[in-house]
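Narrative of accomplishments. A recurring question from our advisory board has been how the design workflow behaves on a single, concrete structure rather than in aggregate. To address it, we present the structure tokens for one chain from the evaluation set, followed by the sequence designed for it. No filtering or post-editing was applied between the two.
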């Protein structure tokens, strides 16, 4: 079973790793809403530049001051970091199947999405720069919940799948759920302005442990911070909870508040992933409609067969009664 799961997962995982994937089943989709950028350098600030993007409405949208990734600092910071033993994707898949059990009755369209979320989590946590935070936890569990909506085998099996998935990437499944809930509750009914001001004002020593302010401090003070698609998914979910439509401008604002406006793995990448996230969610919803329609047809066919059998049995009983 693990072998079959691996063989079906690797093509999607390769697409994911190459950077043209965000919970999508095709690498052929391109972001059509953005055209080539126009860059304006800032004098006296070689590590940052202003980038303007032209949208399909023929208007330039500034993405703000882009931060360069300082690979020298990253190398120095990671030199003394205690890292867990490296794990391959196949080992993560084995860990998932061993935790769940030898038989995995996960059906399409759920299996493909579960596989891709697992691959996304694997590649994120396997990066030496990875630091877990509430936004990543929100994306990991939130994406899983969206993917499993309508799963026919019940909440107990959904919980088993989640437990197995989180443990496969060495994360505490209950903690991730708690962090997801903490982040969603913190957003609550806050207006966007208050959320961004709270992140901008967050500072070390004032943020309580396990809070969204602490997550903001972690990101702002970490020169090795690494963007991942599941982190991006967490940001989209928080923005949607706040009633904000994730677009290039709003994503840039939110990531600026976290001082995460990187040229590589910054708002531009996050927005590109969002366009594919939306398309994937729409495809999943369409697949679910087809799945439900097929289930309804099966039930109707079964009911028709049972009704025909009942009529045949009734006919035979009448014949027996008439002949006796």
């Amino acid at each position: 079973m693990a072998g079959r799961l691996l063989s079906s997962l690797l093509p999607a995982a390769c697409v994911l790793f190459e950077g043209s994937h965000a919970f999508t089943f095709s690498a052929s989709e391109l972001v059509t809403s953005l055209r080539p950028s126009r860059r304006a350098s800032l004098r006296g600030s070689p590590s940052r530049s202003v980038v303007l993007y032209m949208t399909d409405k023929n208007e330039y949208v500034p993405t703000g001051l882009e931060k360069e990734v300082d690979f020298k600092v990253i190398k120095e910071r990671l030199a003394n970091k205690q890292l867990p033993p490296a794990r391959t994707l196949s080992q993560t898949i084995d860990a998932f199947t061993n935790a769940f059990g030898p038989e995995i009755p996960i059906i399409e369209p759920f299996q493909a999405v579960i596989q891709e979320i697992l691959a996304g989590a694997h590649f994120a946590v396997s990066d030496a720069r990875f630091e877990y935070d509430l936004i990543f936890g929100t994306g990991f569990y939130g994406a899983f919940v969206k993917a499993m909506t309508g799963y026919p085998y019940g909440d107990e099996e959904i919980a088993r799948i989640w437990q197995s998935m989180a443990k496969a990437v060495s994360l505490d499944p209950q903690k991730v759920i708690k962090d997801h809930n903490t982040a969603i509750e913190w957003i609550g009914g806050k207006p966007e302005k208050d959320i961004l001001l709270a992140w901008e004002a967050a500072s070390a020593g004032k943020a309580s442990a396990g809070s969204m302010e602490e997550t903001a401090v972690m990101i702002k003070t970490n020169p090795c911070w690494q963007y991942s698609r599941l982190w991006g998914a967490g940001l989209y979910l928080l923005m949607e909870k706040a009633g904000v439509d994730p677009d290039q401008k709003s994503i840039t604002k939110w990531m600026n508040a976290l001082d995460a406006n990187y040229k590589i793995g910054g708002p531009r990448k996050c927005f590109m992933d969002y366009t594919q996230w939306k398309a994937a969610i729409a495809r999943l919803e369409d697949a679910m409609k087809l799945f439900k329609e097929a289930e309804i047809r099966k039930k109707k066919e079964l009911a028709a067969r049972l009704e025909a059998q009942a009529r045949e049995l009734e006919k035979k009983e009448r014949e027996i009664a008439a002949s006796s």
